[in-house]
Predict the structure.
Amino acid sequence: MLTTALHTLRARWPAFIGSFIALSLGAALLTVTGLALASSLDAPKRAPERFAAAPVVVRGQDTLRVHTPSGERTKELARPRPVPDALTARLKDLGPVVEDRSFPVRVHGSRGPGDRSPGNRGPGDLIGHPWSTAAFAPYRIDAGRAPRAADEVVVTGGWAAPGDRVRTDRGTLRVVGTVPRLGFEDAVFFTDARAARLSPVSVQLAVDAEVSAVREAVRDAVRDSVPGSAGVRVLAGDDRRYADADPDRDREALTALNALFGTAGGVSAFVSVFVVASTFAFAVAQRRREFGLLRTAGATPGQLRRMVLGEALAVGVLASATGCLLGAYAAPHLAAQVVEEGLAPAWFTIGEHTWPYHMAFWTGLAVALCGATAAAWRAGRTSPVEALREASADTGTMTRGRWVCGAGLLLTALVTLVVALAGDPGDLLHRKTYVSRPMLLIAAAALLAPVVVRPSARLLTWLPARLPGATGLLARENTAAGVRRTAAVAAPVLVTVALAGSLLGAVATLDEAKAAEVRERTAAAFVVTAPSGTGFDAAAVDRLRAVPGAEVSPTSSTAVYALEDGVALIRSDARAVAGPGALTATTRLPLAAGKVADLDDRSIIVNEEWAEHTVGRSVRIWLGDGTRKTLRIAAVMHTGTGDNGVYVTAANAAGAPVDRVDVALADGADADAVAAGLRGAVTPVGGRVASGDVWAAAASPGTRGTTRAGLFLVLGIALLYTGISVVNTMLTATSDRARELTVLRLTGATDRQVLRLLAVESLTVTAVGALLGLLVAGLNLAGMAAALHLLTAPVTPVVPWTAVTTTAAICAALTTAAALTSATLLLRRRAVARE
């Protein structure tokens, strides 16, 4: 039968071209993702940048280390400690010591380098440093001179020249020199005195001395119990990179890249199995008479199954090999694209790895065989009498196996949803969950589609069937009668619409819930924010307090750390407040228990995610600078979307500067006058004043760029596979309807009427798939909305109508174009044959 399979494959190649393309693309994508993942597993160690020429860097404690029965647990501190003065004095005895400082500088207007290096958020963003640290990169003056006065600076790159005046949030600065840009930052260098005023705290020092002598001085300080010396690090050699800004940025970028390509690879495998299984199932259904003739000629059921599997084997081997070649060609181009988009570090390239090719080839072959297994089983059940059947209506479309698998997947999806809602609703908000969970419902809906295809088609064509003419009626009956054909075309449409609605809808729903939380918590009339990465000094806060009619609540960004179950060190973002009274006037906390008024220097407000969240109980924590404390729980907030955080008083803020001041209006105060007073108080130091509503809208967390890129990549893959499956199925189905179309022509229908009928049928089938896809998306979004409701963050599910409509329109266009193209060619061949 293998020879028969090969001859059949050669004779019926149009029916398998779609499966070949789908498998090739699937193998190519698996090759690309495998090569990308393999290349990102071992990131090269980043060399020192800002301190490449520095002999030694001494850095204050920046890591919290906690010993547990399961080993040491570490977390980066929110507020690294400065090197203690006593230790600094000892280091000065060894050689020159230079204090390092880094702080953001924003250029007003359109000027600026426009760089997006780590630490810079976009055009106009610079990083300020003392001039004495420039030699450690090393930077060398290429024009002008070093800064001498408080308003003089040296800048990197060619965006400004000596003599230029630049307006910034640090005042108007005069450029007196430039240095070549080294690629890792856009820097602006001040005099050491001015930098010390702008950034009073220095957490690291450059020491011009022998490494061994510096290490010995630090050990002596620890031995002598110098306060703050425990945890001080001596960085030399490659370890000096830990003194650079965000030294782990490559690892974080690669983690996001792994998630991006991992998701794309998983969806590729899922959709390719889906498409191949659907294609083979429809192909077998269309060949009932052929298999019946083979059975009449003496072929056994096992031989028919082996023939179908042999065809799948031939297609799988060729397609997988082709996909590996395509993946090898596409991988370097994709790597260059993700680097250009900022999703990967600049050094990221595709390495020499062989295992991704093996994974892609054998996975593609397994997909082909698995996709054909169900079709092969159905082929083996074909009886000889099938050769005598002439009926076009489909019967027995729902086999026992299809019922069991479809119902099992549907039940699994519903049960796991209920279990998650009852046990851990927050898990439904995680990206891995809302990306993978729709696949269960999609597979269940596709398997059970023949059950609802006929009633759905009749419902959608109810009005067209009652319009004048026979087109609507024929379309209705043909769609309802050809259940297999309708289900085969509707299934890929269902996949794409369901993925678009579920993924984009989940992200939009979660974003809306988070935005609603921010709006609900904000009761302030105005919010004053400091320049990014800095804070207001005491004088600026006093000026804000002095504004008539303003009731201010200064707060600081910090963090606290808690050890859960004795093994997990958990970081929680926190806000440090001046006092509970001011907090109550400007913020509405979503309390589940307790009172804000009970917050004091010996207490804390936590949320329900904490292992211990009972009012009155004590929790042992570490503050943002690593100080260990035991605080009493004064109040507990609802979990919400996970962004409610923690509240402590300023005494527990580990010296964090005030970076936000919420302002409420006193009774009878004029809002415009208060706003003017606030601007006058903070504009000189770069502060910004916004209304509470404007600030809440700007502060609402949005979707990360990598998440958006991943979702659109997934949807692009799904749409591509949908196009392949739909076009292939419609070409095959229409060519097999030659006799039916001939009968229509013999009864008096014109070519235009036949094409119009096929167009209406195609649109109807697409509408059925889109309707089922919307139903699946609705169930997924309803589950997320239920989880948010249980987490006390109720929100109406957001359906991405634009994306869903666009996806359905593309599917409709592809379906109609394939049907009309195939029918037009068929009618022309018939016309030539008659002549």
In short: Residues 301-340 form the longest helix (40 residues). The first strand starts at residue 56 and ends at 59. The chain has a mean pLDDT of 82.
